[in-house]
Design brief:
This protein is an alpha/beta fold and 263 residues long. The chain has a domain of 176 residues: Rossmann fold. Helices cover 40% and strands 16% of the residues. It binds NADPH dihydro-nicotinamide-adenine-dinucleotide phosphate. The site of NADPH dihydro-nicotinamide-adenine-dinucleotide phosphate has 27 residues, from helix 2 and helix 5.
Length: 263
């Protein structure tokens, strides 16, 4: 009897890397899921029973992601062939949620030698790539009863910090893309929102010494601290629930009060 019950359960559920999910659980595709906020997205979605497809640039860099899901796809968001190949592999795969998370920061002054590289790479990884990923996932999203797209922008979409102008421009573009796609895809019931994290503890900010982080956080944020990746992930989860179907084109700021503080 127990064996029959186990067989029925194994048909109704799938088992990935030691975790079990319902066969009809929503599927989320997350770009840049091998570390930082992307990895935390993978962990939080998996913990809530979602089926997670995480993309990584380097197929050998999946150790932590593989503990969450075995559905790992190679994707360099700047490489058109890589995006096209992913779109091909996604053909027929149901996707309910796309989280455009991959990002890069390349500091540069406008007159520095690396400015052109910083500009091209920033716009490619964070603006162009979000559009290409939407195009790749769209046929699958269209099959979902509650299709959701979330673009990860930044508080740099709402203001500007010196010496990262390419990043700032790319994040403003991400917010513009969010609004444009919300308007374009809304009639199909696809919601498109963007999340603007403030200073979060990941590899992207780890070069800033701890004492400088503390000074910055106390001076600039209301909560007087850096945020953690899981705080961004938790906030994002609220945007992709079936019940969140009337939220689109919105900006969710997760910044400890950085953007509302005047003095
Ligand atoms: P990390 O540097 O920790 O992670 C960045 C991720 O993006 C990695 O998985 C990286 O892959 C991936 N990535 C970079 N370039 C490419 C590419 N060409 N193709 C595919 N993947 C790529 O950063 P965070 O986790 O902090 O950042 C996640 C998102 O949050 C980004 O969009 C970032 O701009 C945004 N954000 C972060 C803030 C922070 O304070 N940390 C604040 C505001 C916004 P790989 O490991 O191969 O390099």
């Amino acid at each position: 009897m127990m064996r029959i019950l186990a067989l029925v359960l194994s048909v109704l559920t799938g088992s990935i890397a030691g975790m079990t999910y319902a066969a009809d659980a929503p599927t989320v595709l997350i770009t840049g899921a091998n570390r930082g906020i992307g990895l935390e997205y993978a962990r939080q979605f998996a913990a809530k029973g979602y089926q997670v497809i995480g993309t990584v640039r380097d197929p050998s860099d999946t150790k932590e992601l593989s503990a969450v899901t075995q559905r790992v796809e190679q994707l360099d968001v700047t490489d058109a062939a890589s995006v096209a190949a992913l779109a091909g592999r996604l053909h027929g795969v149901p996707i309910d949620i796309l989280v455009n998370n991959a990002g890069i920061v390349m500091p540069s002054t406008v007159d520095a030698d690396n400015f052109a590289e910083s500009w091209d790479m920033s716009l490619a990884v964070m603006a162009g790539a979000q559009a290409w990923a939407i195009r790749a996932a769209l046929p699958s999203l269209r099959r979902s009863p509650h299709p959701r797209i979330v673009n990860i922008a930044s508080t740099e979409a709402l203001g500007a910090t010196r010496y990262i102008s390419a990043y700032t421009v790319a994040k403003h573009a991400s917010m513009g893309l969010t609004r444009a796609m919300a308007v374009e895809l809304g009639a199909e019931g696809i919601t498109v929102n963007c999340v603007c994290p403030g200073p979060i503890r990941t590899a992207m900010t780890q070069r800033t010494p701890e004492e400088d982080k503390l000074v910055f956080a106390k001076r600039r944020t209301v909560l007087r601290r850096y945020g953690e990746p899981e705080e961004v992930a938790h906030a994002t989860l609220s945007l992709v629930l079936p019940a969140a179907g009337f939220i689109t084109g919105a900006t969710l700021v997760v910044d400890g009060g950085l953007t509302i503080r005047n003095a």
